[in-house]
Amino acid sequence: MPRHPFSNVIGFDDAPFPHSHRGNVTIVGTIYAGLRFDGVLMGHIRRDGANAAKNIARLVAESKFANHARLIMLQGIALGGFNVVDIHYLYRWLQMPVLVVARRRPNMPAIKEALLTKVPGGLRKWKLIKKTGPMEPILNVFVQRAGLTTDQAEQVIEKFAIHGHIPEPLRTAHLIAGGITSGESRGRA
C-alpha cells in the first residue's frame, strides 16, 4: 500500500474563552505522524483580530516539526471569534496544503451580518471567506481547502477520522485547548 501523501499533519483549534474576553486567545496545534500523536504547538492570536494565518505560519515554520509536516488542518475558517484565517496565504507561506473542517455547514447569512455590523475589519474578513469558497460536504463534515483536491481531502478525512467525524489532529487539539483553559476538557470536538 503506498504511503499517504499527507501522513504528517498539524491540526489547530482555539481554546474556549468567555464572551466578554478581549485580547489574546490561545491556539493549540497537535502534530500527528500517521495516527501517532507526536507533539503540541501552542501560541496566541488576537480575538476577532487579523493575525491568525501569520501566527499559525510562524508557529509551524519555527517548530521542530516544520520539515516533516505535510498538511495543516483547521477547526473552522475562523479562530478566536472572527480571526479569519487566510488559508491561501498560509498555503503559500508554508508551501503545504490547508484543510478546514467543520462539523456543520456554517450559517453564511448570519456570519456576513455579524462581520459587517459588529466586527472591526468585517468587510475584509467577509471577502476573505468568500475568496476561500463555499464549504463542501465530505464524509459527514464540511471542508474548505487550499492546495489539495476534493479527492485528497476525502482521503485525509477518511484516514484521520477514527473516533467520530472529526479528524484526530483536530479532535485532540480541541481537547487539549479546553483542558488548558478550564482545567479539564469538555464537549465534542
Explain this structure.
The chain has 189 residues and is of the alpha+beta class. It has one domain: archaeoglobus fulgidus dsm 4304 superfamily (archaeoglobus fulgidus dsm 4304 fold). The protein has six helices and nine strands. The strands form two sheets. Strands 3-2-1-4-7-9-8 form a seven-stranded mixed sheet, sandwiched between helices. Strands 5-6 form a two-stranded antiparallel sheet. β8 and β9 form a beta hairpin. The longest helix has 15 residues. The chain starts with 7 loop residues before the first strand and ends in a 7-residue tail after the last helix. InterPro entries: Endo_dU. Pfam families: Endo_dU. It comes from Desulfonema magnum.
